[in-house]
Write a structure and sequence with these properties.
Shape: elongated
Order of helices and strands: HEEEEEEEEE
Strand order of the largest sheet: 1-2-3-4-5
Low-confidence stretches: none
Number of helices: 1
Radius of gyration: 30 Å
Largest sheet: 5 strands, antiparallel
Distance between the termini: 124 Å
Mean pLDDT: 83
């Protein structure tokens, strides 16, 4: 009796196996490259969002403190308003009567009248970057070990922090304001820039501007 013929099974050749492995590796490399781009984009977006949020919080702290500024014609040694612009970075130093909801108030208890200083300082971890730092201490206390000032980093990677002051006499903004104590400008234009543009490292990635009308009546 003749047995039925079975079809011959053709095995994969070594060349076919190598081609399949190569194609699989190319697909995996493409997938990993896409995944890397997605992860990098997500991190960049999260960093930019966090930076923007810190910048808005910083501007809110400056606005709130300026709106609660406290000046005195009788004791301008402690109740004063000073400022300066140097290159792209300004500094603010004044006395304010700050509410309990103000950033850092828990640290000072009943000392609601405090000096508030906003200035740009080098980042402790990355010396090539700058931060906007807010420092507070009780207005009638000289900073010491007993009354240490409290500093809080508000915005990171600051690339611009400038002030402009409105002059009613000229009806225009000026970069300098040299008050005769206890004079305060009627309006202050605050500009805060963070990050750096990919096209030009000298240009901030994001810029926020606010106009503040501080109280001008001294007591």
């Amino acid at each position: 009796m003749k047995l039925p013929d079975h079809p011959r099974r053709r095995a994969f050749t070594l060349v076919e196996i190598m081609v399949a492995i190569t194609m699989f590796m190319m697909m995996m490399i493409s997938v990993m490259a896409c995944w890397k781009v997605i992860v990098s984009g997500t991190r960049t977006g999260e960093t930019a969002a966090a930076m923007a949020q810190r910048a808005r919080t910083s501007m809110r702290a400056i606005e709130d403190s300026l709106n609660n500024m406290d000046i005195s014609v009788y004791n301008n040694r402690y109740y004063y308003f000073t400022n300066y612009n140097k290159d792209q970075y300004a500094c603010l130093d004044f006395a304010a009567r700050l509410p309990s909801t103000f950033l850092g108030s828990d640290y000072f208890g009943d000392n609601v009248v405090r000096h508030v200083i906003f200035q740009v300082q080098p980042d402790p971890a990355e010396r090539d970057k700058l931060n906007l730092v807010m420092t507070q201490y009780p207005v009638l206390a000289i900073p010491s070990d007993q009354y240490p000032p409290k500093s809080i980093i508000l915005a990171r990677d600051v690339s611009l922090f400038t002030l402009s002051f409105w002059s009613p006499k000229d009806n225009e903004w000026h970069d300098d304001f040299l008050p005769k104590q206890p004079e305060v400008p009627p309006m202050i234009l605050i500009t805060l820039g963070t990050g750096h543009s990919a096209r030009d490292a000298k240009v901030p990635f994001e810029v926020i501007q606010r106009v503040v009308r501080p109280p001008t009546m001294a007591h």
